[in-house]
Amino acid sequence: MPIPTNYSSPLRISAKDRALAQLQKWIIEGTLQPGEKLIDGELADALGVSRTPIREALQLLEVQGLVQMLPSKETRVTMIEEEDMPKLYAPLVALHALAAELAVPHIQPEHITRLSELNAQFAKCIQENKPYEALEYDEEFHNVILELADNAYIQSFTSSLQMHIRRYKYLFIKRPASIAQVGVKEHQAIIDALEARDAEAASLMMKKNVSIHT
């Protein structure tokens, strides 16, 4: 079980929270692969904590659906199948579309500027063939709109779904550049709808953008 040593540890948080954040990151990014067996002693040594916070973190990761713990046997990273993604995307699309609609009354010029900057960076990463960096800017673009929606429930549910979808993106991302470029145009259409305070158009364009492009 290869464990990186050159990672940045969060500061001023409990051992359990630090272990949770790092293990979650490794699972989502694919450092810890689907189906990989997790050994709490090795993880504890790698993170510089005792086994107790590791076990507590693994219990929380099981609740999140990222690991599977078999009593008195072993713990493994949950499998992820490409064909399961539509089940995750369906509620995510609905939540993002609603967020775009709710964000309209709160949109200000500085938000439009920020969204435009993020979309420009997203486009730049696509042009430079940096798919993972592009994913980060895409996610940040959508996070701005989620925050503007000012609905903690939407953010909570979206965050939970996004963890699993992010795993899918890291493992299966092979989208042609032409499809990625469509995302840039869709982002711009969302920005235009928000700036025009057209809630219906913003919702429709968001739904189109978040849907899986195949």
Structural class: mainly alpha
**Number of DSSP-assigned strands:** 3
Distance between the termini: 34 Å
Q: How many helices?
A: 9
Strand order of the largest sheet: 1-3-2
Q: What's the shape?
A: elongated
Q: Using only CA atoms, what is the Rg?
A: 19 Å
Pfam family, one: GntR
Domain HTH gntR-type: 13-80
Protein name: GntR family transcriptional regulator
Keywords: DNA-binding, Transcription, Transcription regulation
Annotation keywords:
single chain, 214 residues, mainly alpha, Arc Repressor Mutant, subunit A, Four Helix Bundle (Hemerythrin (Met), subunit A), 3-stranded antiparallel beta sheet, GntR family transcriptional regulator, WH-like_DNA-bd_sf, DNA-binding, transcription regulation
